[in-house]
Write a structure and sequence with these properties.
The chain is an alpha/beta fold. It has a single domain, classed as Rossmann fold, CATH 3.40.50.2020. 36% of the residues lie in helices and 27% in strands. The chain contains six helices and eight strands; from the N terminus they run αββααβαβββαβαβ. The strands form two sheets. It has a six-stranded mixed β-sheet with strand order 5-4-3-6-7-8, sandwiched between helices. A two-stranded antiparallel ribbon has the order 1-2.
Length: 184
Amino acid sequence: MTYDRDALLDLIRAEALQTGDFTLASGKKASYYLDCRKITLHPKGANLIAEGMLSVIESAGKLPDAVGGMAIGADPITASIVTIAGQRDLPIKGFMVRKEPKGHGMGKQVEGPVEPGQRVVIVEDVITSGGSAIKAVEAAQAFGLHVDCVIGIIDRLAGGAEAFAAKGLELKVLTTIRDFGIEP
């Protein structure tokens, strides 16, 4: 399967985009809601997202050692990318960032086959303020990983890109809310 942006837009429109009155994780009110789990856990959606994000990654020139992000939202994205990368014989591994360090065992916050010094890309579903992905970036950096960029499925255009820029990171996205005729 190759990346088909129009198919991803159609799937988001049909499965994930809802209109009404919603309260976001940030506490802000919104007239629409994006439930991207309906896409990241969908067989076609998982493939489209992985192909799209791999396309963004490959266009950067040098492959990262791994992709990952904040559990639970980034987990299916990471798994899809790692699966497609493996089918293409690309050496990209996956990792996940716990919301807080594990309270037992080795007490890790970053889990997976990554080592300090490796280059990684943080993945995220919906970018609003960037808060969740920034926490993943900070945990990855504290672990010793070098974060190349953040890639999201959809940007609500609500300050996330600016928040990443303030941290010296570029936000790359597959879509924005404007692709659905909604102004931020």
